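haha ok so turns out i had the wrong file open the whole time. this is the CORRECT one, sorry everyone. sequence first:
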Amino acid sequence: MEALAAIYADTPAFTFTDTKPISGSIAVEVDTSDATDSAQPKYLPPIYLHFVLPALYPLVDAPRISLECSWLSAESLAMIEKQLGEIWRVEGGMCVLDSYANHLRHELGSFTIGVSSLPEVTAYNERRVEEVFGMQTFLCMICMERQSGRHCVELGCTHVHCVQCLREYWGMLIDEGSVWMVRCPHPGCPQPITEDEMGRVLDRERVRRYGELSEQRRVDMDSTHFAWCPREGCGRWGARDKLNDKLCICSCGYAFCVCCRRVWHGTSFCAIDSRMQVLEEYRRALEDGIGLEAMQKRYGKAVLESMLEREEKESESLRFIETVTRACPTCGVRIVKAYG
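then structure:
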């Protein structure tokens, strides 16, 4: 008992009674450092090795043991107890409790497969990772000082920074509206920031502002999939329809045409407000090709060509009138000289 007490000194992992028969328990945390599955949790809830030592232990009798574990089935625990029995058969006559604990710690790799989905395993792993992280010290790449892990945060890219520096740096960028620059400040790191990481560093108001500005930037940068609602006072956006990308329905329920920004007019082409302005734009598009497809999609290719043809005919008529007629000196009406 003295040897075990020395091994587990200053930890609650080992408890025992002084009265005979001596009994107690050892909490053994399984070593998962050799796991090949990236989803395997780093820490698993401990296996409790309960024992009772007979009067003739260890010279004659083996310790009476039982195992308790939240993530192992009764069948698995029974198999492991048989393995521990084999250790006694080989090492009989010696103190085997520490050998039992080492077996539980290092030889249960096959029993840990698939346990990462269990809620209790996930919760324990997150708690232990946080505890171990808090006991270490890290060099913050912003203030260049070593800080306790309790005052630091590890980002998804594994870079560690102190919370105070990140709060000031990210907060300044968000206040300025430069949300595209909010990322890991480690030199050359392109890692974006998750909502969870943002919430661990910033206050709710800044997280809310970051979300709004990021959403606005996403809509502004991706006009092929999103559009802002034209309704006065709405300020929200909608996703463009996959079958008809001229149609966009805002989250407020307003359906509108992306091209003319008016209420949705179905399969009809957009109304033309200024005929001459549209014709001028169409002529430029025919010359340089810029925006031609968009105009034909908005107003209709046949409609534009018909307008252009009609305008050319009207221009010819005006040129003819200007050539063969002159204004009446009395009323100004265009007249043709009949004789004299």
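The chain has a mean pLDDT of 82.
again sry for the mixup
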